[in-house]
Write a structure and sequence with these properties.
By secondary structure, the chain is an alpha+beta fold. The protein contains 23 helices and 19 strands. Keywords: Membrane, Transmembrane, Transmembrane helix.
Length: 754
């Protein structure tokens, strides 16, 4: 009878624990299935690892904690603790205690990440750039998702409610992706959900599987999921289109140049704005400077800004000498159907009057951005300077690049060689940096390049990344985004600081005369991008390389010959001092690494720390379980098992805080245990173990194998643990004092006397 009980009881516990591991594996697959639905939200593969590694780690950690005996309800709490360690190590910036335990400063830093993430979401489209703030959201979401899945499926034993967490995640791509949610991803998520339910059933009711019923239910659910993905609003592949406004939206994504291309391909132009100006001709209206090149995209570098006051002076103009002729102009703009956080105005703007809402301006490039406002419906007057540098002034410009401009020389190490090679070929014979800039502009306008908004899209090289530009230089067909990006990158390869400006062409005038052009109308067809190059003493100078679009600046025409001296430069110089072109951020002031650090790096560091902490936490528990398992295995396999049983009983009692000195007789020790577990199966079991122990110690020698020792031992251990509090059981599992050497007082006389 005893051996039959052992055959039923101990394997049942093992099956239940194996079932938890099986259910944990199903939850990991569920996260994996959900991750496929998020493809296309963030560029690169890093976000996927940032999602899967923390979630899989926390789920596996939960299974490991349950295996060593931690109560199901306590596991989610420990998972939250591990999540806090991961988030502190990865995104705490050294503010946590020992770099692991969050402090108020850590929470404040997390809040800053969250605010920046919300701002970046507003600014970006899909796929968004892999920014640190997005990795903060991904890792935090992964930790939260893992805890929710583990809690609902295992701790609360309600696996059906894991669907809530899954649906919450699927809503994100359904709302943000332009093509909606992929039906295959939704079907995979449904299949993973069904597997979770199946694993839970097998854990609760082990028996012969019924694959036929499971397959029929699963197939039906997957069909429903595919139909839902194809028809439900927000989940269909075209569902996101219904949320797109009919007007122009600029500056709302991390890829503004790509969005510019989408607007240029509109089937019908949309009136964006109108303006009048005191200048003799229409003006380029600049929205933003895209001065940070990541290798895959040009974007506006975020930096400190100043609050804009109505009519207050904006400036000074970076790099501008008073030797350069300027003309003050007034431009009154009426926004019609254009929404942007950036304000269109002629560069360089000096002041703005009439804006509604709160705005700020950037001291580096004088662009104006909304804090709690956009351009929609605004009417304002901008005062600007019309710069009129001469060709001779630009030829004489050069010298040392200011520290805050050196970053505008950066090129990623993996920039395609064709960009630098083409730049050298196009500027062969050019001496000054100005000559090289004009040569680059002429190269694009005179060497068979064709303006087309469709060719890049059809041939798969639309965008502004380095590889895209390499293809553009080979195909020689594209639109302003490609021309501006190519010239800016080629200028950087030659040592000339550059950036890309985004804005509008002057538009079409109506109702005016030669002396009074009247009102200009600007539409979505006038969206434009052009390069700006930096020349010391002049500042940022625009060029126009796009063939068939815009106007070539007067200072790049051969007839511009007037000489005006520029401070710090010799008018008779034939070449400017050679600049060092950094292809490594370490050469740029304030940089400290050879390449922009991957946002995944702190995630891996934080996860590594959490793994190390968990390993240290679980090592004693694992060693203790291995010792107990070895003892149980030895029982029934060899004679003399009574002493093994007694060793395990004493160790278990010590782990639970009992005093169990080796000098105490087995009968006295067994009496204390029997009193503690009175009324349970453990009471009779410990008395049977005592009888075997005394027979083994005082009876005649025998090599017979005692039957049922393991079963009785498990019963006594279960009874002792059941009578102990939850905190004591957790301490016994994680900090087993029985592992300490026997000579240590804490090992021999731990805790209370029972």
């Amino acid at each position: 009878m005893v051996s039959e009980t052992l055959a039923v009881g101990v394997p049942a516990v093992a099956r239940r624990r194996f079932g938890y591991w099986r259910l944990t594996g199903a939850l990991v697959v569920q996260v994996l299935a959900v991750s496929f639905a998020l493809l296309g939200l963030i560029q690169g593969p890093g976000w996927w690892f940032a999602l899967m590694l923390p979630s899989a780690f926390l789920l596996v950690a939960g299974a490991a904690l349950r295996t060593i005996g931690v109560a199901r309800g306590l596991v989610p709490v420990l998972q939250l603790v591990l999540s806090a360690l991961i988030m502190t190590a990865a995104f705490g910036g050294g503010t946590g205690l020992l770099g692991l335990i969050p402090t108020p400063a850590t929470v404040q830093r997390w809040g800053a990440y969250g605010q920046q993430a919300m701002l970046s979401i507003y600014q970006q489209g899909t796929p968004a750039e892999a920014l640190p703030e997005f990795f903060f959201l991904v890792v935090g979401g992964a930790c939260l998702l893992a805890v929710i899945l583990d809690t609902t499926a295992i701790a609360l034993r309600t696996p059906a409610f894991t669907a809530i967490g899954v649906i919450a995640v699927l809503v994100v791509p359904g709302a943000l992706l332009g093509d909606g949610l992929d039906p295959i991803s939704l079907a995979a998520s449904a299949a993973a959900f069904l597997w979770v339910l199946r694993c839970d059933v097998r854990t609760r009711r082990p028996g012969t599987p019924r694959p036929g019923a499971a397959l029929s239910v699963g197939a039906s659910a997957i069909v429903v999921a595919v139909l839902l993905a194809g028809t439900a609003p927000g989940f269909d592949r075209g569902g996101a289109a219904s949320f797109t406004a009919g007007g122009i939206s600029i500056g709302g994504t991390v890829t503004p140049l790509i969005d510019l291309g989408k607007d240029l391909r509109r089937p019908a132009a949309v009136r964006a704005l109108s303006y009048t100006t005191s200048a003799a001709a229409g003006q380029y209206l600049k929205l933003a400077s895209l001065d940070q090149f990541t290798g895959s995209v040009w974007k506006h570098r975020e930096r400190d800004t100043k609050r804009l006051s109505d009519g207050a002076t904006i400036g000074p103009v970076a790099g501008l000498s008073d030797q350069v002729k300027t003309v003050k102009i007034q431009t009154t703009v009426q926004i019609d159907d254009m929404t942007s956080r950036w304000l269109p105005a002629p560069y360089p703007v000096q002041s703005v009057k009439g804006l509604n809402g709160t705005w700020s301006w950037d001291p580096d490039d004088l662009t104006i951005g909304g804090i709690n406002a956009t351009t929609q419906g605004q009417k304002y007057t901008a005062s600007s300077l019309l710069l009129q540098p001469t060709a001779d002034q630009l030829k004489a410009a050069g010298g040392i690049v200011p520290a805050d401009v050196e970053r505008d020389l950066f090129l990623p190490p993996n920039t395609p060689a064709i960009i630098g090679k083409t730049a050298v070929e196009a500027t062969a014979g050019a001496i000054s940096e100005y000559d090289k800039a004009v040569a680059l502009q002429d190269y694009f306008r005179d060497n068979g390049f064709v303006y087309s908004t469709q060719t890049p899209l059809k041939q798969g090289y639309d965008g502004d990344g380095a590889r895209v530009i390499a293809t553009f230089l080979d195909v020689k067909s594209g639109y302003c985004v490609h021309f501006a990006s190519a010239m800016a990158l080629m200028a950087r390869s030659l040592g000339i600081p550059s950036r890309v400006a985004e804005g509008y062409l002057p538009g079409a005038s109506s109702g005016g005369t030669a002396n009074n052009p009247g009102e200009y109308t600007v539409t979505s067809d006038d969206l434009h991008a052009w390069p700006e190059l930096y020349f010391a003493g002049v500042g940022w100078v625009p060029f126009e390389p796009t063939v068939g679009r815009g106007t070539v600046p007067a200072y790049t025409r051969p007839e511009t010959t007037t000489t005006v001296p520029v401070p710090g430069a010799t008018s008779g110089a034939t070449s400017a001092p050679k600049r060092v072109v950094p292809t490594d951020p370490a050469n740029v002031a304030g940089a400290s690494s050879t390449a922009p650090p991957s946002p995944l790096q702190p995630v891996l560091s934080g996860l590594g720390v959490a793994v190390l902490v968990l390993a240290v936490l679980l090592t004693p528990a694992v060693l203790r379980r291995v010792r107990r398992r070895n003892r149980l295995r030895r029982l029934g396999e060899s004679w003399g098992g009574a002493s093994v049983v007694w060793d395990e009983l004493r160790d278990t009692a010590r782990d639970l805080g009992w005093s169990a000195p080796d000098t105490e007789t087995p009968r006295a020790f067994a009496g204390r245990i029997a009193a503690a577990v009175a009324g349970t199966e453990g009471e009779e079991a410990v008395l049977r173990l005592l009888a075997v122990r005394e027979r083994d110690a005082f009876g005649p020698p025998t090599r017979a194998v005692a039957v049922g020792l393991a079963d009785d031992l498990v019963r006594v251990i279960d009874a002792l643990q059941a009578r102990a509090g939850r905190a004591i059981r957790l301490k016994a599992a994680l900090i087993p004092v029985s592992l300490l050497p026997a000579a240590w007082p804490s090992a021999a006389n731990a805790g209370r006397p029972a």
